[in-house]
Amino acid sequence: MADQDNHKDEVLSGHIPVLTEPLLEWIQLPTDGIMVDATLGHGGHSKLFGRQLGPEGELLGLDVDQNSIQRAQSIVSDLKCKVTLVRENFEALDTVLKRQGIDKVDFILADLGFCSAQLEDADLGLSFQKPMPLDMRLDKRLTTTAADLVNKLGQTELADVIYKYGEDRASRRIARFIVEQRGQKKIVTTTELATVVCRALKQPSRPGRIHPATRTFQALRIAVNHELDSLQRLLDVAPKWLKPGGFIAVISFHSLEDRLVKNSFRQHKSDRLYEILTKKPITAERKEIQQNPRSRSAKLRIARRL
Ligand SMILES: C[S@@+](CC[C@H](N)C(=O)[O-])C[C@H]1O[C@@H](n2cnc3c(N)ncnc32)[C@H](O)[C@@H]1O
Question: What domain range is 291 assigned to?
Fold first, then answer.
């Protein structure tokens, strides 16, 4: 029955939560527990763990994207526990928990990045598959878009962003092509940018292959949303809010994020704040990857507060 319910929720939301089996193997919540889902998304993980909570438990869900909150609302609406969903960046965890009058929590989960529906959302401009305005702000309250960076940064700064956040060794060449192109006409759509990157790399996009612009798009998204700074702030404050025995689980999708998580857990371990439960990150089994290709690059690390 639980499986059927899960399936119904996934069909409803169009998003399959990743690595649910290992998460459930490692983490059980008391019925009066408090969970912070720092990246609510479609509410898939919230629902999964929210089911463990009784009426005396609480789920606090955060997301920067108002549409994600709306999508998740119906998914978590039949949970027995108290549910509070707020449009906040998880970097503001301190402020949010204080405002909610929460003292300590049993579980903090962050499933980083973006959901499938956000990739399709033309307003967000994350996909190079269709022409979309080159925006990339998950939080529309931010003021700088990807188009601003692409059209206004100096060539060296642009190359640095693509190198630092996209780890693309061809960053200088890509930046040069972008600057040449924008000298003729501003780059305003995702597909225009993707075309310039393909030209710079002398690689066409081929079905079934990783798109040549993937790293450039990742870099711009990270820069626009300050993703690594936000993650670092969350990782820094988490121990302060976890009850002894409480869990933090972070699912990351690229090496820059995973490195921050690994280093933070190690630091907190050496400060005797954490026990690291996953010596190596947990990755998806072949079966999960077949059912949900998004899980292919997911890496899960879990620590327990001492
Ligand atoms: C991969 S999805 C989460 C999916 C979710 N675990 C589920 O099962 O449905 C990531 C979500 O986190 C949100 N997000 C990304 N960075 C954030 C941040 N710094 N603070 C709050 N939400 C963030 C995105 O808007 C997106 O909705």
Answer: 2-117+227-305
